[in-house]
Design brief:
The chain is 19% helix and 28% strand. With 232 residues, it is an alpha/beta fold. The structure holds nickel (II) ion and manganese (II) ion.
Length: 232
Amino acid sequence: MAANPVKVVYHGHATVSIFSDGHHILIDPFFSGNPAAKISADAVNPDFILISHGHGDHVGDAIDIAKRTNALVIANFEIVSWLANQGVERTHPLHIGGGNTFPFGYCKMTIAHHGSALPDGAYGGNPGGFLLKLNAGKTIYFAGDTALTYDMKFLADDNVDLAILPIGDNFTMGQDDAIKAVQLIKPAVVLPIHYNTWPYIESDPKVFQERVIKEADAGCIVLEPEEEYLVP
Ligand code: NI
Ligand code: MN
């Protein structure tokens, strides 16, 4: 295993970049129309784009970024087919429970309880999350938009270094359920996302941070958009 540091950059809402072993993995690239975003879609140059589900605040600018950068887009079969129909050339379909080895490491699609309709109303398959076992030696779980699910308990076997969890309530887990998720997953550190973008999902990440440390025996990092974090 290489000892290169793994860097995470939070772009606001549910958009996250992971830099590992010279690769840039961009998850749920929502910049245009994202009230939390501080940069435009033109400013990112990923070589991989991961999309957790079909909703507009997650598919976001994926088409434009993929066409400009020629990044490989990894998402469920239905979303990948929809992207291909719109001219995205490099895609890799996964589906829930399945994973594949990519140049950055192993990526498995995990269960999420949510919806996945695409922005034009097309069927987007089932929503998911991602478990990334990076070649750089770190394991990152990106939950996607999801309710609390007891299946998260299986992730405790994966020694997750960083769990990226929604806390905004209304559309996903709120803080109480996210705390239970942390207790099930047992990650070293949690990064809360999917909060404060709109009034429906207002949530105080500092309150969550204190609760994670006190109630779930894990670390918690709160990032401002464009703030970066080295996974310990
Ligand atoms: Ni959603
Ligand atoms: Mn969402």
